[in-house]
């Protein structure tokens, strides 16, 4: 009954009585985050884990990652396809950019924009499509940060969250400690200020692991899953820069995020790393190093990839290649032969060498029978 009553609560105004727009926007997401956390907490306590123990709430956060990332799998597949199409059209985009290189007038910029959008429409992709999973995850991430960040305030006020995280569960979460030393609502700054050496070590280690997992995931993409053509584009150069810039942003973020948020981010990175490994191994970008490695693995098993992208037995693949070769030869033979262009001087010489009508030679003398 307490959970049901908590689920009907509405967003409260801020302390100053003003209009809290961010709180209203995040309220449904915070409610959903609390519902998932409470469900996993109930499940783990039902199998015997202590309700106020740190490991129970950590596992609940891991469960939240599983739910969120599983729901994002369709978007992730769409992201992979969009990224692949963006890489495929990179040479065409580069041609458009070179066409208008150095032109700063308004008409040229508009024409370049139209041609670029036409390319995106033709291939069914946009740069935003490759960012969809991240864009969807960020509000959820902020909602989780808000839930964990409010735990201390709600505990001190003796109240619960916006949904199923009631006052009792809030108190259990507040008092829960990972390995008995680090509170899930504690940040690295808090640990330093209180001199909690064990919590500092745990948080610093998790921040380093979080950065390393993010770095390795991005390195996988740019080192093994890009074609040679894609590595010459501007997008590749941006990815290389972001590979080294993002860790600094994560260091800054990790210092101010509660332990529970750092755990969520690290586990989410592990999910991304595993998911990316499977995609690169089984659905690599054509022409990339990963694609060549996949072809070699299939060849050792007597298989290959046909023209439609399906894995087929080697015999079927060779038969298809032979058929495609024969069709290409027939088409080339049936095509009208193109006459090679010649210069005017050469055409005049060829005309002079040709015998004149009536058997006359080039000097105008009729050719008679030999005596």
Question: How would you characterize this protein structure?
Answer:
- The protein is an all-alpha fold and 371 residues long.
- The chain has 16 helices and four strands.
- It has helices at residues 2-7, 21-46, 54-71, 73-88, 90-99, 106-123, 132-149, 151-157, 167-175, 188-194, 197-224, 234-256, 259-282, 289-300, 314-334, 344-353; strands spanning 177-178, 182-183, 303-305, 311-313.
- The strands form two sheets. The protein has a two-stranded antiparallel sheet. It has a two-stranded antiparallel ribbon with strand order 3-4.
- Strand 1 (177-178) and strand 2 form a beta hairpin.
- Helix 2 crosses helix 3, helix 3 crosses helix 13 and helix 11 runs antiparallel to helix 12.
- The protein is elongated, with a radius of gyration of 33 Å.
């Amino acid at each position: 009954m307490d959970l049901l009553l908590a689920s009907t609560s509405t967003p409260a105004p801020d302390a100053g009585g003003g209009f809290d727009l961010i709180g209203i926007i995040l309220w449904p997401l915070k409610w959903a985050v609390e519902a998932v956390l409470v469900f996993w907490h109930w499940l783990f306590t039902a199998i015997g884990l202590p309700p106020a123990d740190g490991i129970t709430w950590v596992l609940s956060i891991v469960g939240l990652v599983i739910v969120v990332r599983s729901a994002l799998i369709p978007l992730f597949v769409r992201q992979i396809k969009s990224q692949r199409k963006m890489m495929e059209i990179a040479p065409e985009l580069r041609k458009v950019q070179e066409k208008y290189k150095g032109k700063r007038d308004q008409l040229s910029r508009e024409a370049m924009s139209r041609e670029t959008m036409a390319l995106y429409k033709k291939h069914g992709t946009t740069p935003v499509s490759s960012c969809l999973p991240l864009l969807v995850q960020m509000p959820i991430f902020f909602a989780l940060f808000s839930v964990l960040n409010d735990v201390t305030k709600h505990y001190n006020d003796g109240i619960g969250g916006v949904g199923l995280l009631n006052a009792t569960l809030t108190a259990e979460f507040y008092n829960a400690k990972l390995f008995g030393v680090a509170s899930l609502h504690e940040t690295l700054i808090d640990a330093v200020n209180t001199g909690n050496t064990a919590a500092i070590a745990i948080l610093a280690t998790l921040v380093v692991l979080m950065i390393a997992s993010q770095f390795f995931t991005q390195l996988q993409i740019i080192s093994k899953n890009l074609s040679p053509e894609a590595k010459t584009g501007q997008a590749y150069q941006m990815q290389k820069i972001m590979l080294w810039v993002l860790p600094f942003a994560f260091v800054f973020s990790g210092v101010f995020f509660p332990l529970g948020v750092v755990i969520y981010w690290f586990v989410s990175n592990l999910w991304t790393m595993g998911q990316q490994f499977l995609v690169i191994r089984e659905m690599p970008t054509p022409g990339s190093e990963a694609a060549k490695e996949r072809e070699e693995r299939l060849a050792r098993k007597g298989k290959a990839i046909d023209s439609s992208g399906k894995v087929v037995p080697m015999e079927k693949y060779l038969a298809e290649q032979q058929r495609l070769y024969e069709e290409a030869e027939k088409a080339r033979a049936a095509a009208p032969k193109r006459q090679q262009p010649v210069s005017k001087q050469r055409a005049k010489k060829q005309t002079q060498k040709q015998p004149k009508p009536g058997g006359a030679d080039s000097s105008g003398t009729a050719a008679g029978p030999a005596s």
